[in-house]
Design brief:
Blueprint lengths: L3 E4 L2 H7 L11 H19 L18 E3 L2 H16 L17 H6 L9 H4 L2 E5 L7 E4 L5 E6 H14 L5 H7 L10 H22 L3 E4 L1
Helix pairs in contact: 1-2, 3-8, 6-8, 7-8
Length: about 220
Amino acid sequence: MALDVYVGSLTRYYGGADNQIAAFAKRPEHLHPAVLAWRTALSERLGENIPAPLDWDETPGAAHFAGRPGWDGWAALVLWAVHAEHPLVGRPDTLPDEWENDPALARSNAEGFRSRYSHLVRHVELWLPSPFPFTFDGEDVGGRRAVIGSAPTLLRQLADLNGATWKADDGVVAVWGRKPPPDKAPLELRARYGFAAMVQAAQKAVDHRLPMKLDY
């Protein structure tokens, strides 16, 4: 199963996703108002924790973009980030089959630990175009549990990760994203590929003030 990242209106995303919320949106004309109602309810829940009520383009003409970090690129990028935070924990040379059990990942997600890369490593699936610093447990439009974060904060944290490790300029990052690494590639090569896809998507989300979502 592929892992993509989508940037655009949620009406377009759920309207084109195969049966993801078919039972929820009985007819297509119900979907758009349902997304707007979900956004309003979420904005009211967050209240003064966000700088302004949630708002973005949900019209049919809203811009949209897609990228493909792939599961290996995504997982390697997450591990690269948590091992940057915990350099004394031995970093694997290649992506482990059970990467979710990595001890550095557990430390970055431990209760009370303030991760520098929280919007990347804390199982976020949906990033909103609002600059809040926290992640939170919520529900997506279809009522499925999802961890939600901020696209502007994710973009800043990705820049911080690059600055702390690779220090690569935009041209170098673009080269990283041109071709997926081969099977059994080193962890760093996979992380670089995942980084290129995610930073491009996050930049689009920020520039166009649109949500960003993992799609699998």
